[in-house]
From TrEMBL:
It comes from the Eukaryota. The lineage of its organism: Eukaryota, Discoba, Euglenozoa, Kinetoplastea, Metakinetoplastina. It comes from Bodo saltans. The chain crosses the membrane at residues 926-952. Keywords: Membrane, Signal, Transmembrane, Transmembrane helix. Residues 1-23 form the signal peptide. This is Membrane-associated protein, putative.
Amino acid sequence: MASFHYLLAAAVLAVAVFGGQSAMCPTYGVNESLFFYDMPLSCTASFDCWTEFCYAVNGTLTPTCTPFGNVSVATIQQAAARRVTCALSAALASVSSTDATCKKWGQSLTALYAAYYADQTSTNVTDACTADMCTLLTAGNATLASQVNFTSVCAINVTAVGSPCTYSCPDSTCAANLGSCGCTANAVVGTVDTNANLNVNSLLLSSTLQVVASASYGVLSGTCSNFSFTSSLKYVWSVTNSSGAVVLTANGSTLNVPANTLQAGNYTATVTATGLLSTQVSTKAVTLTYIVLDPVVTLSAPEKATTVRSYTLTAAVANPVSASSYNWSCVSQTVNASCPALNISTSALLFVSAGSAAGTFVYTYTYTTSKNSVSASVTVVVVSTDIPVVTFTAGKLSGGIGGASQYSVFYKTQVIAVSGFTVAFGSAYTRSWKVNGVSVNGTADSLTVNASSLSATSLSAVTSGDYVFNTITLTVTSSLNANDYVFNTITLTVTSSLNANVSASANVSVIVLDAFTSTLTVSKLGDNAATSAASLTDSLSFTATLTPALTTSNAPFGGALTTAIVVYQPGATTATSLYTTASGSAQVGVAPIIVNGTAAGTTVTFGVQVTLAGVVVASANSTFIVTLANLTAAASAVAASLDVISDPNEAVAALGNIGGCGCPWQHRRTAGLRLWLSLNACDCWRDMLTTTIVTGVQLSATQALSVATNVAALLSLSANKTDASAQVVNVMFVVMTGTSFNLDVASAVGGTIGQMDAQSGGAVATQLALVICAQVLVGQTASLDLGVAGSMTAASSTGAALAGLAVSDAASGVTVTLPSTFLLELSGLSADATYGAVTLALAVSPFSADNGTPIVGGVVQQSITSGTNTVAVTGLTTAIVIRMPAGSSGTSCVYRNETTNEWLTDGVEAVVVGGVVECHTLHLTAFATGSATAVALSVLVVALAVMLQLIAV
């Protein structure tokens, strides 16, 4: 190494001495001496070119190798010609270099070579060669240099330097060496297309924008024109404001603009697609217009209240602005009855204390901005006797497609969860639900109802604002005064058996969007008459129709609109993503590798899924035959392409093809097994994922499903499961944090956890426990199979229903029961808010004992969640009961202190009931704060959750 550094130092000195062109040599119109002075010696390949030339001319190890030794003209000419060929090879290979200087030099020289390669008439590269070689040889021996035939030295051979790609693709030869392949110089980046999930001409500040760019990349005709270079494209986004200042940048084909990132105004989003050579570039600019909608106020209050009890009014503001103020006011409609004091209030709530006057009062909430003021009013009748007070929290119901609208909007196929009602009443009462006069079963103060049973609003009616409202009403009434019942579309009747004289109610309205119908046609691109297409070689065209027509320009309520093409692998019950790009009204994608594919072909089911605000509103399937003539060649091409993929969308597509080549069903095929072993022998697929599927990347639901499914398959036969699992933990976190995360994706993640080692699988399972409840409707549960790793059951509940809630995980036999006093003992919980209760049973502990040794056996994790945060549970006086699986050994329960990594017993005791151990705990955590996603994986802290481990003592 010392001699190498010495040579570099000498090189710098020599450049200072010998810089400049010889007066005898020609010049050319390029400011770089690419074959001489500017050829970087820090690059291994170009360094070898330099040393080989110096030795050939018997010179010194300086940049000019001067002075030359006693050599002939023929020797000098031959050495110079070899140096030119060597320099071109080094430049073409520099595409894979990590040294910025090497890459810059390589791109500059390759650009000259590319123009020459294309038509053999461009003289830039030969002019540069002649000038540089003349200067080099003259510095070494001016007398002999005058006798050299520089035309011969610089006779660039387009087939000697790089492969001309004369073979048929897919083939590993071209895919593995694109940077040094001669046909790369002929490749062209096509026009960039963009597809946005929202109308870019009227974007709301609160909306999340996603714009996907795509472009073709390949040789237009002739040699290697059937090979796609598209996976090697690199995309860069830049968003500028009206003044030209850059406000946002992004790498990758997808531009994500989170909600409330930009202010109102016009912006230009420019995407640049660059090929393997810096000269292969295509750009497109998209104008983004962000607008501000006027705020809309929604006010909710009990229709009837009592002087005996306090009551609350809640306000919700759609399209809020940062610079604003609010005001609560009251007007009495009853003589000699004064409005109550309004001093206990916030921007979202007004609290009226018990003891206020009886009468009729009109409350008004006013929201003021610099632009205008908006308000909403509600009338409350207050009586002096004790009656039930029914309140519904203002705001939209969760899970809808209403976007920025103030309305609760759902699609025809959705299930609506109605919650947020609060009943304050001192007497016992019973409940009964009715939907359109028909009795249905509800759970306490919540209900789930199929949107298909409600009146729908057509797309055209939505566009014109002619909505059809469905009113959901909770009525609390005495059993002896039935005439006060209010039956709207959905009615919950609460009847008191002790007070027969009173009633009260609260309402919420729902809009249901009518159904769409769709069709899908699949054909081979460029040959509509063809009945089959070859994997990886041919492209498929997908044409979908939607009735009524739905685009981003007429998407109701500003909902994000996306269209995904999916493929059902033989034997699979769920669809996985197929990467496509827009081509006119169609979507185009390369025919995928099919599990157990043959040369004769396999009939494959493809599908289209149209989502609005994350909800699938239309889908259709169609079949097409896909053939696989040469599994080995196709598999090799897939494996070789992994090194050049830098875009998340391309990475998901490649992962799907890897799964098709090497999934477990394929192992009986020799070629598939060889590919599988080769992929798992190297880290290529994991390296590709960990560098492309990174924090901040937003995957669609079908993409997330594909990643989870294929990672599970690849992990199943990994030679080093511990290392492989650790590498993909962050990838699985990205899968779970996307806006399109749903229960199907959660189930696939469960399958992936089952293939991971205990430590990494535990980290992923803990994060899954944080996000799963948001996908479960209020009053319902969902269970996930984690394979050999364990199981999980999540329940979604109102705060009031947490009291006495029991969550049973049937697969493990674990049952967790919260005390009936849970809501009273734990401050900060709201009776009408929505919470999650998650029971996670892991068959093997991902944690170690405080002495560093692994805990033997399994663990049970119980957590209470609010959104994607964990609720700290501590200071209980009545225990949470965790019934461990039958057959658990030992007589002691311990929990893990996540700060000290100690296993402790304070506040936890073991009770044997009927031969089964129960862990009774007064806390779930009093330890770490933060989120599991923000904790270093090597630490494996599980934020705000308790680990219960049954051990023998």
